[in-house]
Design brief:
- Helix content is 20%, strand content 25%.
- It has 336 residues and is α+β, with helices and mostly antiparallel strands.
- Helix 4 packs antiparallel against helix 8.
Length: 336
């Protein structure tokens, strides 16, 4: 529960680099007994007379490995006695040799790349890639465990809770699932047989799997923006555990009319902030997916450009009537 509340209540996130140090106290043992791997050399050139690699910064976080190899380094070979296309290539990712496969240099991992003509002319590159937008690098925990239904918002929130790093790009990930956060797109109870996700969420109820398909299998470097768009496919598993509806729907209400500060005035951010302020209403998160699916949200700017009004309304049409919530409630919040 504390973990979930931390996720929901996150307003700002800080990433922290941690450096591990291996120390050895004098105990009469031999240094050779310590099973340490030699450090990877970030960038090393042997041979290739006449070429200047002094400006290459292999560890630049803004430099993708693909650009580093096939633009920056390849550019150094232009109009020289050496032909870049003649170089042999060896690639190891996460200690696995992937040389003979189709290599995606944007995937997360620790890379060791060797480009060479012979043993006297060798380029060695070591780089840690952490900026992958392959959907399988975003969704690393693929078993969603128990979910109440297979509606897209249910899958969305279950995936976020199992992969907490996604909270750093909450709106982007939510819009990948359901499109732009407009009332027309998000304010309706989405049934399991509704085709509203354009094939991105494919559900197999027989074997209880969900295929998340971005409909883009790879990148064209000259066209796509891999730092901004998801790509690839990942398969999730789940256990369907329908929930019993309450004897009476919960009346929408709040003890705090002001939600305070919200990072962005988007529907998903406001939903999350409202939930953290009203856990009893959502039965301490037991009705979380039902709340996201069964409740309308309309956000309206006020005369104060930083202040907004948010109205939550339970579905009440006969076909879409919520069995979990009833009524409506209005709150305010601020956002820059």
């Amino acid at each position: 529960m504390k973990k979930i509340l931390t996720i929901l209540g996150a307003v700002s996130l800080t990433t922290m680099s941690v450096t591990s140090t291996v120390a050895c106290q004098s105990n009469g043992g031999n240094w050779d007994d310590i099973p340490l791997k030699p450090p990877l050399v970030p960038f090393e050139v042997k041979g290739f007379a006449g070429l200047d690699f002094s400006h290459v910064n292999a560890q630049n976080k803004e430099q993708t490995l693909w650009n580093l190899i096939f633009k920056e380094i390849k550019g150094i070979f232009d109009r020289s006695q050496w032909n870049f296309d003649d170089l042999q290539q060896e690639v190891i990712r996460n200690d696995v040799d992937i040389t003979n496969t189709k290599i995606d240099f944007y995937r997360n991992g620790t890379y060791s790349v060797k480009l060479f003509v012979d043993e006297d002319n060798v380029i060695t590159i070591a780089k840690q890639v952490t900026t992958s937008n392959h959907i399988a690098d975003k969704i690393r925990t693929t078993d969603l465990k128990n979910i109440h239904d297979t509606r897209p918002k249910t899958i969305l929130i279950a995936t976020i809770f199992k992969n907490t790093d996604i909270i750093m790009e909450l709106d982007k990930f939510g819009e990948f699932f359901l499109g732009e956060q407009t009332p027309e797109g998000w304010n309706r109870q989405i049934y399991e047989d509704d085709d509203v996700v354009k094939g991105k969420i494919l559900i197999n109820k027989t074997n209880q799997t969900i295929t998340i398909d971005t409909q883009k299998s790879e990148w064209n470097e000259d066209v796509d923006k891999p730092e901004k768009q998801y790509y690839g496919t990942v398969i999730l598993t789940y256990d369907l555990k329908p929930i019993n509806e309450p004897s009476e729907p919960n009346i929408l209400k709040t003890e705090q009319d002001d939600l305070g500060d919200v990072p962005k005035p988007t529907m998903l951010q406001v939903f999350m902030k409202f939930i953290t302020k009203n856990l009893p209403l959502i039965n301490n998160l037991e009705y979380l997916s039902e709340f996201l699916n069964d409740v309308y949200l309309i956000i309206t700017p006020t005369e104060d450009e930083k202040k907004y009004k948010a109205e939550f309304t339970a579905f009440k049409e006969s076909r879409k009537k919520s069995r979990f919530f009833l009524g409506s409630v209005v709150v305010t919040f601020k956002s820059n």
